[in-house]
Design brief:
By secondary structure, the protein is an all-alpha fold. It contains 9 helices and no strands.
């Protein structure tokens, strides 16, 4: 049984007060990057990055593995901070017991894969590799936007805070797509398509995930 936790408006989380699943996820991402460096970043990325042309040949593992690879310390630290900031309130709402933690990790992974599928769909024969957890992190940001209500009920998809946050995120990624740069990316091209795919997945899948966990209000709609 999970201990009930207060629901409502997300707040800034000091690192050591963040829910343990959110901290554990960041630790896993950092550990994966250290392993990547230890094994040889170039070789690991070449084998396990998301490359559309390889996916077309049935090699689907990179849809998952690419989430846990990064191109530099700046890249991984930027994603880790982003994930911790938005993942903490999402993790708290899902619950920090075993079931809530499993749901949190699954939500992160599924949304990350969906973001990668969007990249594949928009670059069906591309040969450039994509790495990073920003698609899954974008899903956490989208889910957090639905917690901006000041109460236990989720903000509806068409409510002002959700629409405003989504619009800002969309505009920011359009700009990234035009200029081809974002903080932490260095000289690498930013796969903004992954961001948008992950964000959309997070918006849509957050409420059903809470419903499966029994953490929606009794009269709260699953998709609105």
């Amino acid at each position: 049984m999970e201990t009930p936790e207060p629901w409502g408006r997300p707040r800034r989380e000091p690192f050591f007060q963040a829910p343990w699943p959110a901290v554990a996820l960041v630790a896993l991402i950092l550990a994966c990057y250290l392993l990547e460096l230890a094994l040889g970043a170039d070789q690991v990325v070449q084998r396990w990055a998301l490359v559309s042309a390889s996916l077309d040949k049935g090699r689907l593992a990179p849809l998952v593995t690419a989430i846990f690879l990064h191109g530099s310390w700046a890249h991984v630290l930027a994603n880790a901070g982003f994930i911790l900031a938005f993942g903490a309130p999402v993790s708290r709402r899902m619950g920090t017991g075993p079931l809530g933690a499993l749901a949190y990790f699954t939500f992160f992974l599924v949304c990350g894969v969906i973001g990668n599928l969007v990249f594949w769909a928009t670059h069906p024969s591309g040969v450039d590799g994509a790495v990073g957890a920003s698609g899954a992190g974008s899903a956490l940001m989208a889910a957090a936007s639905r917690l901006l209500t000041g109460g236990p009920r989720l903000a509806p998809l068409l409510s002002q805070p959700v629409i405003v946050m989504a619009a800002v995120f969309l505009v920011a990624n359009v700009i990234i797509g035009v200029v081809g740069w974002a903080p932490g990316a260095g000289s690498a091209r930013v796969a903004w398509e992954v961001h948008l795919g992950g964000y959309a997945a997070g918006l849509v899948l957050f409420a059903p995930t809470l419903a499966l966990l029994g953490r929606l209000e009794g009269s709260e709609p699953i998709t609105a």
